[in-house]
Amino acid sequence: MKQSADFFVRSAIVETTRSYMGSLMSFLVTSAETENRFFLLELRMKPGNEPPPHLHYDQDEVYYILEGELEVYCMGEVRTVRAGETIFLPRNQAHAFYYLSPTLRFLALLQPGGPDGYGLDGYFEAMSSPSTSMELPENATTYALSDPASAIALAAKYGVKLLTPEETAQLLPHYPGFGVTRKSQSH
Predict the structure, then answer these.
(1) Residue pLDDT, tens place only, 78-134
(2) Which own/partner contact pairs does 145-152 have at CB distance under 8 Å and 24+ positions apart?
(3) Strands (E), the chain
(4) How far is Cα 68 from Cα 102, in angstroms, rounded to an integer?
(5) Which of 26, 29, 100, 161 would bridge with 42, disulfide CB 3.0–4.6 Å?
């Protein structure tokens, strides 16, 4: 009988964590470890480190918020997701976020994983570097501060489309715009 995956226990520690666009991304379960069925990350982020509006061609995303608040734009709606809540983002649907709290920590489950390293975990690994600490990096290059051309090309290779401002206006009509500062509505 073929074994489908190894049995292991893993946590969000420096050895499993990468520094990604001003944030920390802990690889808890990779696509390769699940025969590309899914992968699981723990993310630690702060306002200003949001990705640009985008969509995933082949992967659904589920976020479980551990700490903080996240404002999500998807399918013509705006939702605020708080600690203890879950949000589902279906594949092929444009979405964007704002991190509303000083720090945000959540689990992200993406399904399916990516074949042969070409899932979103491959993109995240290519866009990041090994972390040296579990503290959010200071003065890191973020999407808002980087040249978008390389991220756009790399994202396309991994099944992600970063949206142009025109596409964003059409697909996410309530989204105020990339890089706009937002504040929590519950405080």
Answers:
(1) 999 999 999 999 999 999 999 999 999 999 999 988 766 567 888 888 889 999 999
(2) 146/21, 148/52, 151/52, 151/127
(3) 17-20, 23-29, 39-45, 54-56, 60-67, 69-74, 77-82, 86-89, 95-99, 104-111, 128-130, 160-162
(4) 8
(5) 26
Q: CB-side exposure of 111: number of CA atoms within 13 Å? A: 8
For residue 148, the one-letter residue type is P
Angle subtended at Cα 25 by Cα 186 and Cα 175, rounded to the nearest 5 degrees: 45
Retrieve residue 99's tokens: 């991190």
Convert the pLDDT of each residue in 151-182 to its tens digit: 888 888 888 999 999 999 999 999 998 877 76
* Cβ proximity of 121 and 110 under 8 Å: yes
Provide the 8-state DSSP code for 172: -
Tell me the pairing of strands 39-45 and 23-29.
antiparallel
Backbone angles phi, psi at 164, to 5 degrees: -75, 165
Which residues share a beta bridge with 1?
Answer: none
The rounded distance, in Å, linking the Cα atoms of 71 and 100 is 7
